[in-house]
Amino acid sequence: MAHTELDLRERRAIEDMLNAKVPVSKIAAEIGRYRSTVYREIKRNYFTDDELSYLNGYYGMNAQRYASDRRARRRKLIRLDKLRAHVIDRLKTGWTPEQIAGRLGYDGQPVRVSHETIYTYVYSAEGQSEQLARHLPSRRKKRRPRYARRPRGQVFPPDRSIHQRPEHVKSREAFGDWEGDLMIFERSQGKMNVASLVERKTRYAVLFRNNDRSSTHFMNKLMDVMEPLPQTARRSITFDRGFEFREWRKLKTGIGTESWFCDPQAPWQKGAVENLNKRARRYLPRDTQLAALSNRYMKAICERLNGTPRKCLGWRTPTEAFREEMMKLR
């Protein structure tokens, strides 16, 4: 969805709902905006007066005027020809917007603008027509908004929440529901990591080396590992909300596996795989040289983990419990 600023109708709606004590989350849902957008709008355009404190509050008309004034200030580089020519000249010599803004007073410019204003102009329609972005040290076709956040509500929609999982998944009654995570290592290992999976009912563990943290790469590797299992042995996987799992829809379309997600900042909700990670760290400490790990060594770690008796399994091993469940599927 293209970025659009709030209009007067939306601002009036915010004012009315705030006066009615409606929570911000519900206001955002009513006007079709992100909650962070509404919070930021209220904070930026809140009217305060020390002498008339009883008038303090959010007013739609005031907010619209404040926003219009800010837009007018951003348009300085369009209205003022000399200032615009000076900024463009410095951009072409390799100066950054921050350097240009900081030097305006020294360069005898009567009007000042911030580096954010210069960035806004560079990425505006006018700036793009002159291809000004190519003169920046870090060149991008488009710029992320200054306070941009990932729209995680769309990446991990509410109907995929861990709280929406069927009861048989929560209770571990059924076989074929997994938890997944990535074990991260020291920076010297680059993007390499180890993926960890555990079947919730049998505690059967799978570890495999992953050479890239990109979501597409991870999901493709995960599908290769899971696809040989019967469909009923890979019905779902629960992840946290890390960016590595953003391409979760591939699991559904590729191998028919559902995905569920923990609450934000609540990885402990997938406790089985967190427990697996702790036990696996005995063999894979953070300073492990991942490039030297052979598939044979990774398999040996899995066999040791899966060959250890577990009290929660009545002292059976995960391997024994997993085989019993697989036999039932035949």
Automatic annotation (TrEMBL):
Residues 136-152 have a biased composition (Basic residues). Residues 162-326 form the Integrase catalytic domain. Pfam families: HTH_38. It comes from the Bacteria. The keyword Transmembrane does not apply. Keywords: DNA recombination. Residues 132-161 are annotated as: Disordered. One of its GO terms (molecular function) is transposase activity. GO terms for biological process: DNA integration; DNA recombination; transposition. GO terms for cellular component: cytosol. InterPro entries: Integrase_cat-core, IS30-like_HTH, RNaseH-like_sf, RNaseH_sf, Transposase-Integrase, Transposase_IS30-like. PANTHER family: TRANSPOSASE, TRANSPOSASE INSI FOR INSERTION SEQUENCE ELEMENT IS30A-RELATED. This is Transposase, IS30 family. It comes from Roseovarius pacificus. The lineage of its organism: Bacteria, Pseudomonadati, Pseudomonadota, Alphaproteobacteria, Rhodobacterales.
